[in-house]
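Consider this today:
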Amino acid sequence: MAGAAERAVVNRVLTFADDHGVPVTVDVALGALCFAGRMPLGAGRAVFATARCAGWIGHVREELDERPLRFRGRAVPRSPA
């Protein structure tokens, strides 16, 4: 997907990060993907938001199949006096 020039830029960024002890995170990978893919401005935010939503949906689906792990408040009606 990336041409030689794009790969060279990404490699320079990774080398810089490694030389300065900067951790390479998924944000760097997303930036490299957007740069190498020549995506339009704002595409990284759209990819990030889509991935975050998919993660949340997956988390909710897993939670629905399990016993609740956290305290869940519930209304307790008062007994008639």
